[in-house]
Specification:
The protein has about 250 residues and is α/β, with parallel strands linked by helices. The protein contains six helices and eight strands. The protein has an eight-stranded mixed β-sheet with strand order 3-2-1-4-5-8-6-7. Helix 4 packs across helix 5. The termini are far apart. About 30% of the residues are buried.
């Protein structure tokens, strides 16, 4: 029986390789036209915190077509990837690297808990960002950590930077791109009772806001008083829950 299974497995892999070959060839050509972006900064930040943790189960939010969950799985983590799919990927979502389950983080259907959650450049595209934060936080185990990366400006919230005059790209995108500010981060912490373990700011463009001006390669570590466009944040769920704003309002 085992030789038959091995033969079937080998045949299935060969068939998959044959089917994917033209896709990979097309992607190889497209990759030559892409610009280096902020992902090395974001992935390095998340991996830094994962390497310092005892996390085993990891959830990635809004995976899309990225290979990020595959990278995490290759590191030995037990990974689940979810994406709402329809709202962003109007032509349908296909990830050739990893199984991506359909779910909406603003009202997740899974009741599984995780040691670590990553949300890499996704939150800016979610209309109800507070519900998304609460959804992610609710899926964390006590002492679990959440890594968020998104466009950011310390003083100014922007509803959709793509629609502003001077935006470098995105005007025809079928989704929004928010620039979050200190006010939103403080409200996320207040709503969840999370501990802010670290927040880094980066200058990623030559202009005032996200997409404005030329993209800087690599992005530069910055500060609230200097120009900045991107933030990387890690929040921790306390072992003993602190009263959240919701609890306080309900008298709990």
């Amino acid at each position: 029986m085992r030789p038959i299974r091995r033969l079937l497995g080998k045949s299935a892999r060969a068939l998959a390789s044959w089917a994917l070959y033209p896709v990979l060839r097309r992607e190889e050509k497209q990759e030559r036209l892409r610009r280096v972006n902020e992902r090395p900064i974001e992935y390095a930040f998340a991996l830094h915190w994962l390497a310092r943790s005892t996390a085993r189960d990891v959830l990635d939010i809004g995976t899309g077509q990225a290979a990020w969950p595959r990278v995490l799985a290759d590191c030995g983590f037990q990974v689940r990837a979810i994406d709402q799919g329809g709202s962003y990927w109007s032509g349908g979502l296909f990830n050739r690297h990893f199984l991506v389950r359909a779910d909406d983080i603003t009202c997740p259907t899974t009741d599984r808990k995780f040691d670590f959650i990553t949300c890499i450049s996704v939150l800016e595209h979610i209309v109800d960002h507070t519900a998304a934060i609460l959804g992610m936080y609710g899926l964390l185990r006590p002492t679990g950590r959440l890594v968020l990366t998104c466009p950011y400006n310390e003083r100014e919230f922007v509803e959709n930077v793509y629609l502003l005059p001077g935006a470098g790209y995105g005007r025809s995108a079928p989704y929004i791109c928010r620039v979050y500010s200190r006010r939103e981060v403080d409200r996320w912490i207040e709503a969840t009772g999370a501990n802010l373990l670290q927040q880094e700011l980066y200058t990623a463009f030559s202009g005032e806001l996200w997409t404005f001006g030329e993209r800087l390669v690599p992005p530069r570590l910055s500060s609230p008083s200097e120009p900045h466009h991107l933030t990387c944040i890690v929040l921790e769920k306390p072992a003993s829950p602190k009263p959240s704003r919701t609890d306080a309002m309900s008298g709990a």
